[in-house]
Amino acid sequence: MNRVEFNKELERKIKSVESALKEYMAPRFPEKLFEAMGYSLFAGGKRLRPVLLLSACEAVGGDEKDGLSFAAALEMIHTYSLIHDDLPAMDDDDFRRGSPTNHKVYGEANAILAGDGLLTYAFETMLSSKGKSERILKAARIIAEFSGSKGMLVGQFVDCESEGKKIEPKLLNYIHSNKTAGLIKAALCAGAVMGGADEDITNGFLSIGEDLGIAFQIMDDILDVTSSTEVLGKPVLSDEKNEKATYVSLFGLEKSKTEYENYFENINKGIDKLEEKNVNVAFLREYINILKDRKK
Ligand code: GRG
């Protein structure tokens, strides 16, 4: 797949996700609640998790329509997590995706409800999908676990509990293997399941998701100290403000960059293994390696 074909395909996938989200989020009563949910959902996210989900689904021979409602639902869950993470009780941030945070516009109570609304609506969306019910139930369960009791929620909890404390690298990895990698693993595994992958192939995606999630967090920590508010669309140096241990604060900038490279070496080995098992990894490989150079 050359760069022109890749760009065209990426654009097409993002457009599909945008129109699915627009359809699901058509205004309804109470309008203000759906407006608050849509405000953050359509604030300009990269749509990373939906694109990963669709790529995994197609890589194992599935069709885009098999994964689309799950891709949209996962973006709803991701957006809920950002709305709640920005609340005064958590990171207390004023800007996200280049705009004022949800609670700054709609007030704290409505922002909590908008997040709750996106989370519950995500499950309504997944479980209303058309397709093979066995796959739908399995993929919805994967997303439930990685968003909650075996993923993001647990990581966020331990992260909040660790604020202001000196933590060991092992705990930092535990936090991000759950918090940030949770939804990335959910994207790849649920996409694979919706595309009809067996256990062995799904586990291959799981291991790529684990490494990609941690690498994604390492870059987030690097950008927090090296980028600017204008580029990121959110405040920089926020980890220091919140007294959060990060890869950079624990290992320094240079070692964090080396670790980042190591994770990508592993990710590419994981992709090679899937390719050997006849998974069509062409788009996924290109996408993941473009993500490596992300600036925001
Ligand atoms: C509230 C249960 C709960 C969890 C919140 C994910 C999270 C947990 C908090 C966000 C903190 C953070 C900035 C983590 C770094 C990784 C991350 C999730 C970055 C944002 O994701 P992107 O870069 O954002 O995909 P866009 O805006 O492009 O969607």
* Low-pLDDT residue spans: none
Query: Helix segment count?
Result: 15
Average pLDDT number: 95
Strand order of the largest sheet: 1-2
What binds here, in terms of ligands, is: geranylgeranyl diphosphate
Any chance you could write out the topology, listing elements then pairs?
Layout: H1 3-24, H2 31-41, H3 48-59, H4 64-85, E1 95-96, E2 99-100, H5 102-106, H6 108-127, H7 133-147, H8 152-161, H9 169-194, H10 199-226, H11 229-232, H12 238-241, H13 247-251, H14 253-276, H15 282-291
Antiparallel strand pairs: 1-2
Helix pairs in contact: 1-4, 2-6, 3-4, 3-9, 3-15, 4-6, 4-9, 7-9, 8-9, 9-10, 10-14
The protein binds geranylgeranyl diphosphate.
The site of geranylgeranyl diphosphate has 17 residues, from helix 4, helix 8, helix 9 and helix 10.
Describe this structure in words.
There is one protein chain. It contains 15 helices and two strands. The protein has helices at residues 3-24, 31-41, 48-59, 64-85, 102-106, 108-127, 133-147, 152-161, 169-194, 199-226, 229-232, 238-241, 247-251, 253-276, 282-291; strands at residues 95-96, 99-100. The model has no long low-confidence stretch (mean pLDDT 95). The longest helix has 28 residues, at 199-226. A two-stranded antiparallel sheet has the order 1-2. It is mainly alpha-helical. The site of geranylgeranyl diphosphate (GRG) has 17 residues, from helix 4, helix 8, helix 9 and helix 10.
